[in-house]
């Protein structure tokens, strides 16, 4: 099943071979600005009727990246460590019936999967099994199952403490149903909260924002149909409502994400474009005072497409915009109420209308910069900004690389922290060099065998530097 790299792209049996750069506004048939198409796998190969949610996992032992693609009849797992030659490893079938709605998140090398299918509960799958798939695609089975609820619309996980929050279940009026997953294959019911009624989607964090009254608390921020609610869930047996906030032209509070400083919450109303005739609208809430949050301004996109799932990484908001595909929006000037679209990849060519096909979700958190688009109609697409340079180096130890540009050798030195690992990726996101150091403060590498061009050097898994091989 693994695809061999070809010099030119070729579409065959639902796979796309080799990268298609975004040139003159198109990557093949896909309208684009600043994002190349790495690869795609259509729904026929995935043996599914529709795509929906997506997430990702990076193997901590191998640094391989894997896409988790939810489809109507199960959950597909795709090895994207060679992003232009993805390997469809197999599928975990749905627990009960097929469903348009399925959602997955990851904690401690396990995937946790829920669905709106009746009596589905929560499937638990050990992702380390993906290391040893010999005959893909395989049909997988659960490693564990939680039946404390039946259907669920979504699942949220706080990876810092190992709690899962299922939302939209038939329990707790659709509010958070909390499960202790610290032992992933032995999930234990913890508690729930019903006083704010139905939650469609949520984010849970340990708060590190500007409000000192709530510093360090574990917060649940729920998109609850006609409002946003903020709950203190630090004590699972004594959950407290901090506040709730409404907004103008309300149709359906669908999903939102905090900026990395926890000052702003970017929320999408799924039905306002349809009901009011807006262009794509994102509502921005100011969370400076969590007891009194407020709608500070709205961002309006360039099309009439409906916004769906959106996620923040650094100064960019990555939005799955249904018919308009992935939109990348610069939020570096959000303090001045300025948000600017800086790129896109339209996974549904033809129109940008207010329909429910196209890009359901995106996953922008891989160190390589590869971004998953899960498309309702097209299936799995992998895209990348060819100029991607990780922002993870901010507030990290200082490293130097000399000379740069370089012809045969580079020397990497650390001023503070020992160098434990060096990965070098090409602009396709492919790993070309992996060095595991033993706590050294410097290392000279032979790069003479590399082709001329730009490369990304990832140090200790959290700092990225750009080099030029000449």
UniProtKB/TrEMBL annotation:
InterPro entries the record matches: Choice_anch_B, LVIVD, Secre_tail
Signal peptide start-end: 1-18
Record key words, sorted: Signal
Top-level division of the source organism's lineage: Bacteria
Record domain Secretion system C-terminal sorting: where: 403-468
Pfam families tied to this protein: LVIVD, Por_Secre_tail
Protein name: Secretion system C-terminal sorting domain-containing protein
Lineage: Bacteria, Pseudomonadati, Bacteroidota, Flavobacteriia, Flavobacteriales
């Amino acid at each position: 099943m693994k695809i061999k790299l070809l010099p030119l792209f070729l579409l065959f049996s639902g796979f796309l071979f080799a990268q298609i750069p975004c040139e003159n506004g198109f990557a093949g048939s896909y309208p684009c600005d600043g994002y190349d198409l790495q690869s795609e796998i259509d729904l026929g190969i995935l043996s599914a009727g529709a795509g929906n949610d997506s997430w990702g996992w990076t193997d901590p032992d191998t640094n391989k990246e894997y896409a988790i693609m939810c489809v109507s009849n199960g959950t597909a797992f795709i090895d994207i460590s060679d992003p232009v030659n993805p390997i469809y490893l197999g599928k975990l079938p749905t627990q009960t019936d097929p469903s348009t709605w399925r959602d997955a998140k990851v904690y401690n090398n396990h995937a946790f999967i829920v669905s709106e299918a009746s009596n589905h509960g929560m499937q638990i799958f050990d992702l380390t099994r993906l290391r040893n798939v010999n005959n893909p695609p395989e049909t997988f089975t659960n490693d564990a199952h939680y039946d404390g609820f039946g259907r669920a619309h979504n699942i949220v996980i706080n990876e810092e403490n190992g709690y899962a929050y299922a939302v939209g279940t038939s329990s707790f009026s659709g509010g958070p149903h909390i499960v202790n997953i610290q032992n992933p294959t032995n999930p234990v019911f913890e508690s729930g909260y019903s006083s704010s009624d139905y939650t469609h989607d949520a984010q849970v964090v340990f708060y590190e924002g500007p409000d000192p009254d709530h510093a360090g608390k574990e917060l649940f921020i729920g998109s609850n149909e006609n409002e946003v609610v903020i709950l203190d869930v630090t004590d699972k047996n004594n959950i407290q409502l901090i506040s709730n906030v409404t907004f103008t032209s309300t149709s359906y509070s669908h999903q939102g994400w905090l900026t990395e400083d926890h000052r702003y919450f970017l929320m999408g109303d799924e039905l306002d474009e349809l009901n009011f005739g807006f262009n794509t609208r994102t509502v921005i809430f100011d969370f400076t005072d969590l007891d009194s949050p407020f709608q500070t301004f709205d961002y309006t996109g360039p099309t009439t497409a409906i916004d769906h799932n959106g996620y923040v990484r650094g100064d960019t908001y990555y939005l799955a915009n249904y018919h308009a595909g992935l939109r990348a929006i610069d939020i570096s000037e959000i303090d001045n109420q300025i948000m600017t679209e800086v790129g896109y990849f339209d996974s549904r060519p033809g129109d940008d209308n207010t329909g429910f096909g196209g890009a359901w979700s995106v996953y922008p958190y891989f160190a390589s910069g590869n971004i998953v688009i899960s498309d309702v109609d097209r299936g799995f697409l992998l895209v990348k900004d060819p100029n991607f340079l990780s922002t993870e180096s901010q507030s990290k130890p200082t490293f130097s690389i000399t000379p740069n540009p370089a012809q045969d050798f580079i020397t990497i030195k650390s001023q503070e922290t020992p160098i434990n690992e060096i990965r070098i990726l090409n602009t396709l996101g492919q790993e070309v060099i992996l060095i595991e150091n033993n706590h050294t403060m410097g290392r000279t590498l032979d790069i003479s065998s590399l082709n001329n061009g730009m490369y990304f050097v990832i140090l200790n898994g959290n700092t990225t530097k750009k080099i030029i091989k000449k």
